[in-house]
From TrEMBL:
Keywords: Hydrolase, Protease, Serine protease, Signal. The keyword Lipoprotein does not apply. Residues 1-20 form the signal peptide. Gene3D superfamilies: alpha/beta hydrolase, TolB, C-terminal domain. The keyword Protease applies. It holds the Pfam family Peptidase_S9. Residues 477-686 form the Peptidase S9 prolyl oligopeptidase catalytic domain. Belongs to the peptidase S9C family. GO terms for molecular function: serine-type endopeptidase activity. It comes from Massilia glaciei. GO terms for biological process: proteolysis. This is S9 family peptidase.
Amino acid sequence: MKSRLLMLTAAMLAAGGALAAPRGFTVEDLVKMERVGSPALSPDASRVVYTVRSTNLEKNRGNVQLWMLDLRAAKPAPVRLTQSDASSTDPEWSPSGDAVYFLSARSGSSQVWRLPLAGGEAARVTDLPVDVDNFRLSPTGERIALGLAVFRDCADLACTKARIDAKAKQKASGVVYDRLFVRHWDTWADGRNAVLYSAPIDSSGRVSAAPVSLSGGIDGDVPSKPFGDRDEYRFSPDGKNIVFAVRVAGKTEAWSTNFDVYQVPAAGGAAPRNLSADNLAWDSKPAYSPDGKTLAWLAMARPGFEADRFRLVMMDVATGSKRTLADNWDRSIGEFRWSPDGKTVLAVADDIGQHRLFALNAASGKVTPVSGKGYVSAFDMRGDTIVMAQAHLGSGAQLFKTKLGLDAAAATQLTQLNAALLRDVRMGEAEQFSFAGANGATVYGHVMKPWNAVPGVKYPIAFIVHGGPQGSFGNSWSYRWNPQTYAGAGYASVFIDFHGSTGYGQAFTDSISGDWGGKPLEDLKKGLDAAVAKFPWLDRSRSCALGASYGGYMMNWIAGNWSDGFKCLVNHDGVFDTRGMAYSTEELWFTEWENGGTYLEKPAAYEKHNPVLFVKNWKTPMLVIQGDLDFRIPTAQALGTFTALQRQGVESKLLMFPDENHWVLKPANSLLWHHTVKGWLDSHLKP
């Protein structure tokens, strides 16, 4: 019997390697992982369509396709709905549940397509001379809203296409500008605006007449650039009206956050009406209650401040009276959805190192957690069924199903993406901790062990500083800054949500403005000391600090103000000179709020925590990384950093990506980034 068992075990090992030795997580794993998103429940909540992004390393790009789960099955099995060399994104169900609409460029340009679920091929819904960037169906299925990039002074879409074609044939490349934005994020302004259109749909689900412009009379973008999406506009339940958010641009666009909510007839024919003119700060993401009697949207209170708390405003459609729901709940809402009965609003928000889904009672404002620990990146609700994409430090996002009113722990996992890819991977264990930071405030952080940590052994530290700075590095999964890539390489990691981070109340978030190099640096010092004292497997003598954006700024600040703190530094797209940043970044409202005005008005505020003033103290080896398409923190900042290092003889390297923006997104570039960073850490922290 014993020999037969041994033979069976050997056969199993030979057949599939089922008992392969465990290994650490690698950047190759990270790049190859499938990524889930955009869950969309059918009207009867019996099925969910979602997107899965895979990576083609040969073509050096991702590809997104649609999948579906039948939630009526005891064990729902994923069914692939689309397969094309072009991606299929933004799924939306027809009101009857017989078809799924989506975006795809499979015809050569981005258009809306319709896939009947009873069988048959996807049919094109739109055939426009310009790309469709986003869309939304009316609840009645009679109209479709379309986001298009057009020249606002063109009489029709053909005019926009003709101008684009003519520009491509011009030999001269110069462009004359007379106002900001000249460029935004990673794109130079070309005179086009994102404009909201609508068109009727016939009985076959196709557009039956030329789209009409709804927002073209406004000098602004719908959705907003660069990251706005279709959550910035919605139909009324009867399909007769559309509400949308827009910032009137003019010459103040680059320093204004005054987005407003407008209402317009869905068929056009009347000028949009401003519903939030009384608020000079940011208003966005409007959505009607299911009965159409209440219109809700997210609103900030302070003009010019992009990281103010987003509150939920509820407007009585009949009277125009407004109230704030859950005004005493000190969290900033990211996304929200009405429940079908209108009694509940689901919303996501940062919360002490998590990004949770909450249920808000639409009458009383009572707040109840729906999800447990982790990061909810997307969700949908039909009836009392909720499907959400949730990740944590040990796993990329998976789909989960729950019911409104159930305990957060009752969610059922629906997908098992990357199970085969990662079957032999042992992830690093993470733990949250807290300590007394600046001014004695409670500050939170996380630590992560190497994947193969052994009791009694100390491990070198990757000390990661998040960007924003009004952001959070908590219990989430990232495809850029992921602690598991360091854990898989034998490093421990520590990351702190310093003063200015989100999810700890608005006062905590506010505290960094005007104090970039003050309380945050104190928190980082105290946080690292607290982690080393609490977790004996951290080797403080072997530590490097890394960060991007504000985290990159902090690397430059550490170099001059904590110069004996680390063996090495990694600075990705970091601010070197706050004065140069004030005159070269694109979103001026950010630097002007953080420093209390323009550089002309408040030069001392900009210079107070300016890394360039402390270059004489620099001695820590630094790896500098920059994307040349980063218009947020332009390339001159990285070149200044590298020049200062080289001119003083400080060990340094510069990694430039001519085709990346503030983020490194292309698969091959991501591999190069991670291998370069790992090599830098290895050379300073490992024997």
